[in-house]
Write a structure and sequence with these properties.
This is START domain-containing protein. By secondary structure, the protein is an alpha+beta fold. The protein contains four helices and ten strands, in the order βββααβββββββαα.
Amino acid sequence: MRLFIIVLLSTLFTFSSHAKTSEWELEKEEEDINLKIFTRQVENSDLKEFKGEMMVKTTMKTLAALLLDDQAATQWMHLCEKFEIVERTDELNAVIYFINGAPWPVSDRDAVIQSSMTQDPESLVVTVAINTLDDRLPKDDDYVRIARMSGFWLFEPKEAGQVLVTYQIHANPGGGLPTWLANSVVVDTPYGTMTQMVEMLKLEKYQQASVPMIKNVQ
């Protein structure tokens, strides 16, 4: 079993395109891995949108292999406690259920998402789009269902074997979140996820992975 997250490239900006947003503000930087975390306000939302960007020396197949490995998701996705495939339509498309932990006394969150990975045949840019499917599974009283989440991963090949990795998400986490937690989540989530991603990409099983649907830059 393998995969990570949703919908077609044309839906990447579905939520953001329907909401007014402010300019991106730099919140955190990790020079060792060229990582920058940005946030911005979204109209009628208490939670900011986040964007993480970093340059990584890797290949498109290695990145794809990591995101397609659903069994490894809890090892590197920040606060992810469960991540499982509900339904797979093909190698690059799946419905996924996940649970994110939260510090006491805040309730843990869960969500059902549909995912689709695509690659532009000319630029070789890989996109993994993310959106919720709230009504796909019944709610579990032990968790607060994430009401809405949309965003994407974007892998853009650059010179000298470098790839610009972008991770951008906006969500309505459902229920009430304390201000201190809401402010930290939008920074800690991309920071924790992307710093761990760098370590996972070093593993031989991803560097040597065969992902026939995705092409490397020649």
